[in-house]
Amino acid sequence: MKTPPSFRPKKRYIAFRIHAPAPVPYPALQEAVTESLLEFLGERDFAKATPRLLRQLCSGTRGVLVTTPPFVDACKVALALVHQIQDQPVLLETRRVSGTIASLKGALRG
């Protein structure tokens, strides 16, 4: 039996762009973002935020982070605090926050 939609946890999708000299591989991006989130939020709030990167929507120059609504602003700040991935300088720019993946498609293309 499926869980009714009203009982499922709400999600927000944060589309961001990676400004770097070379494309960033997914494992390195995941490690850097997770480390930044843990450092900024702490273990307790990290567990409440349940952040995760969507692998199928992450390329070398853009990505999508999923989190819960109360922690959207904190996750945006943690993304902005990432300055280096694999010894190359990077800048993660938040493009858009949405409640559905479909509405993020435009932000991911541009």
Q: Can you describe this structure in just a few lines?
A:
The chain is α+β, with helices and mostly antiparallel strands.
Say what oligomer this is: single chain
* Radius of gyration of CA atoms, rounded to a whole number: 14 Å
- Alpha-carbon distance between the termini? 40 Å
Mean pLDDT: 93
Enumerate the strands of the largest sheet in spatial order, edge to edge or round the barrel: 2-3-1-6
Give the CATH superfamily. Ribonuclease P, Pop5 subunit
CATH topology-level name: Alpha-Beta Plaits
Determine and state the CATH class. Alpha Beta
Order of helices and strands: EHEEHEEEH
Largest sheet, in brief, is:
4 strands, antiparallel
Q: What is the 3D shape?
A: globular
The helix-and-strand class reads: alpha+beta
Number of helical elements: 3
Tally of separate domains: 1
Helix content: 25-40%
The tally of strands reads 6
Please indicate the percent range of residues in DSSP E strands (runs of 2 or more): 25-35%
Structure description:
The chain is of the alpha+beta class and 110 residues long. It has a single domain (20-98), classed as Alpha-Beta Plaits (2-Layer Sandwich), CATH 3.30.70. It has helices spanning 26-49, 72-80, 105-109; strands spanning 12-19, 52-53, 62-67, 84-85, 88-89, 91-98. Strand 2 and strand 3 form a beta hairpin. The longest helix is centred in the middle third of the chain and has 24 residues, at 26-49. The N and C termini lie far apart (40 Å).
